Amino acid sequence: MTHPFEIYSEQVLAFKLGGQDEVESFTRQKKAESTAARHLNYAEKRGAKAVVLFGLGAGDMAQILAESKPDDLELIICDTFPDHVRKMRQNLPDLFSARSNVRLLTDLSIWAMLLLLLQNGYTAENSHLVLNPELQGHARETMRSLQRIFSGLRTVPLPEKPTAPSISAAAILSPDEPDLDSFIKSFPEWLDEIILVWDLPEGAHPPELRHPHVPVTGYCHCLADNFGAQRNRMLEHCTGDWIIYLDADERLDSREWENLRKATAIEGCEGWFLPRLTLYPDKNNCRAGYGLWPDLQLRFFRNTGKLKFINRIHERIEGINGPSGILPGTPLRHLTHLLKSRKKIEAKLNSFNRAAEGEFSHRLGTELPHVDCSVLYPDGLEFFPAVILPEFNL
Description:
Layout: H1 4-13, H2 32-46, E1 50-54, H3 60-68, E2 74-79, H4 82-91, H5 94-97, E3 102-106, H6 110-119, E4 127-131, H7 137-152, E5 154-156, E6 167-173, H8 180-185, E7 193-198, E8 216-220, H9 227-236, E9 242-245, E10 250-251, H10 254-263, E11 271-274, E12 276-278, E13 285-287, E14 297-302, E15 308-310, E16 316-318, E17 324-326, E18 332-334, H11 336-339, H12 342-356, E19 370-372, H13 373-376, E20 386-388
Parallel strand pairs: 1-2, 1-4, 2-3, 6-7, 6-9, 7-8, 11-17, 12-18
Antiparallel strand pairs: 5-20, 9-14, 10-18, 11-14, 13-19, 15-16, 17-20
Helix pairs in contact: 2-3, 6-7
């Protein structure tokens, strides 16, 4: 059976995206054999199930570890430079194909690698972590960041029963969004309120979207290509102890909604990131690689009264007092490619470009890397613990 790391990494390596030409810098180590032997000794004494090597580097350390380790010890090689990995696989053709229990995990996103490691059972407690001494410069700093987050996070089981805080759901909407009835009906009945801010002139009558159990209140204000300001208007009307906000093309299922309620009982965490699954080209597959997943979204947070979105586009929230975490088993399903035509999506991207005011631009490619959703969301993941991030990363 093909390992999820192999499926994911092969999809990443099959695509060559523009603007990704940065080269991993490394230097060869004179004492690579003794360094590798020392780490394998540490792994054996700890009873580790795996050695996680952060960075492929020159390939010497990876090759020695692969050749020297016992067959039952896994070696996982993480690297954030797909172009470098492509070249090194040509130089070391037998490193992955002819070695027992050697896995490659590559992507530009350290968050993708972090979640894939955790979701497949690898933790700092059961693995020996090695920052490849061959790395230099940006490559070393990137891999060190991943190592520090991986070793510094803590996992917390979701409580069996949710607490009963007041929760506001909110959204900013355009009247021409497709499937709005399905969107409003996807919200659970236990919410305290649903706040909608419509892209319409002030004084206009907001469209009537009704929920069978939850009061829905609509407000009108022209977006004017300023998504941050529109979201701030949304926040002003939320009265709940916690706030969850979605876009019109995003959905959570009933179990995922329950996970949110349960997460409010975890002490010491004030905001939660949700991984976003952008379904493409059908409901069984999703975009992945090059930052397309997990596309972490800070969507659920305590209402501190000091919350504020900054930036006209790619808006970021400030005012969350305390650590944040990730709910890996609570993916936000992004349906834009299933609900909208290519023309509609391109029109949306044009509005993003206007909001960016020339600082950057968005465009829709003709093909996007994707994997089967089961690779990222295996059976049982809905019960995966919450992950509290180390504060030094924030």
